[in-house]
Write a structure and sequence with these properties.
The structure holds two protein chains of two kinds.
Chain A lengths: L6 H4 L3 E4 L2 E4 L8 H18 L4 H11 L4 E3 L1 H13 L3 E8 L2 E8 L1 H25 L5
Parallel strand pairs in A: 2-3
Antiparallel strand pairs in A: 1-2, 4-5
Helix pairs in contact in A: 2-5
Chain B lengths: L3 H12 L4 H22 L6 H12 L2 H15 L1 H4 L1 H27 L1 H12 L4 H34 L3 H17 E8 L9 E8 L6 H25 L1
Antiparallel strand pairs in B: 1-2
Helix pairs in contact in B: 1-2, 1-4, 2-3, 6-8, 6-9, 8-9, 8-10, 9-10
The chains are: A alpha+beta, B mainly alpha.
């Protein structure tokens, strides 16, 4: 499966390890749309359905991707905070067993961003699909 | 924060320059993450301490984990990646841009036409009074321009969760340079027929020809904004 990914992609943030695609923080800054956009898109899609807290998000991504996408904790929280600062997410404080828990939900600006990113992803997927199709000539 | 692991993590993040409010929020969320993971796995393993140790092992050592968290902040923010450009050169470039913009806008909207009709035809004012207005307007522009740049830096710093020491440098540069840059409006003979007079807009650098109190406004606006930033950080923490 790792060989299916282009060599450059293997060295960027999204890389494959065993059967899991890890989202790492140590990689070079290239393939922005393909690699950098993935965590944001996944988060926006999930929080657009219901408000979620960090652990719930990581678990939901894990389950939805059949454990293929694994988001490191060191990546997801700074990303959530950055997305909140950009106005894509809003945050609510809740209390569970006397401890504060932060719940994230999508904002109208985040919903617009999600639509744009989904469109870009679909276009990217279509181009890759057409590349992978066996040539008829 | 009860766990020694998260206390060490918070200390490491603080040493690496992450603002206090962000350190507290991040460690609280990560601790909640660890608790949720422990609760989740408790059904599968009886020993809670063992499960917790496993969850924390997944995070790595606090110092290494702090490094990886900071890498994520750097990846998400331009100001984290380029502090000299963002907090050193950025305020200077912005200041010059904001101070010179009225010059270009004035050319386009024929500012002096409007003002000369205001003073020349509708209101009878002496030359001294018009000059007084020019001085006051120039001073207000000085403070406003510096304040506007300060506001941009304030917003960007809050958004990027940047180290406080960088923000201090940015506001020091802004206060000093902003108070030494001077906007001045002067009355000059009309540049075209039909006008009572024209205005000359000039920018200078140095101690101002007018009262130093006026430039104190330009000096104080970044200071006030920094105090607001600091207060916001304390309040959020």
């Amino acid at each position: 499966m790792t060989r299916l990914l282009p060599r450059r992609l293997r060295t960027t943030r999204l890389f494959q390890q065993g059967n899991e695609i890890m989202v790492s923080m140590t990689a070079k800054r290239s393939n922005r749309i393909f690699a950098n956009g993935v965590p944001e898109l996944a988060i926006l899609q999930l929080v657009s359905r219901q408000e979620m807290y960090g652990y719930q998000l990581v678990k939901a991504i894990d389950m939805a991707s059949g454990s293929r996408l694994v988001f490191a904790e060191g990546h997801i929280y700074p990303l959530l905070h950055s997305m909140e600062a950009k106005g894509y997410l809003s945050c609510r404080r809740g209390e569970v067993n006397g401890k504060v828990r932060l719940y994230y939900r999508i904002t109208p600006k985040g919903r617009r961003k999600m639509q744009v990113m989904t469109g870009e992803w679909m276009k990217m997927r279509a181009s890759i699909d057409s590349l992978l199709k066996p040539s008829t000539a | 924060m009860t766990s020694p692991y998260f206390r060490r993590l918070a200390a490491s993040l603080g040493r690496r320059g992450l603002p206090e409010f962000e350190v507290q929020r991040l460690t609280a969320e990560l601790e909640d993450h660890a608790d949720a993971a422990v609760d989740d796995f408790r059904g599968k393993a009886a020993n809670k301490a063992l499960v917790r140790r496993r969850v924390l092992r997944r995070f790595g050592k606090p110092e290494e984990f702090a490094d990886s968290l900071l890498k994520a902040y750097r990846n998400n923010s331009f100001l984290w990646r380029h502090p000299i450009l963002g907090f050193g050169l950025g305020p200077l470039i912005l200041l010059i841009a904001v101070f010179t913009t009225p010059m270009f806008i004035g050319n386009f909207i024929h500012f002096d036409d409007g003002v000369s009709s205001l003073f020349g035809n509708k209101v009878a004012l002496s030359r001294g009074e018009i000059l007084g207005f020019c001085n006051a307007f120039g001073a207000a522009m000085n403070a406003l321009c510096t304040g506007a740049v300060g506001l941009v830096i304030y917003r960007l710093s809050l958004r990027g969760k940047c180290p406080e020491r960088n923000v201090v440098w940015a506001f020091v540069i802004l206060a000093l340079v902003g108070s030494l840059l001077n906007i001045r409006f002067d009355l000059i003979p009309p540049v075209s027929s039909g006008r009572a007079f024209s205005f000359a807009y000039s920018i200078g650098f140095g101690f101002p020809p007018r009262s130093a109190m006026v430039n104190m406004l330009a000096f104080l606006s970044p200071v006030v904004l920094f105090l607001l930033y600091h207060r916001r950080m304390i309040r959020t923490a």
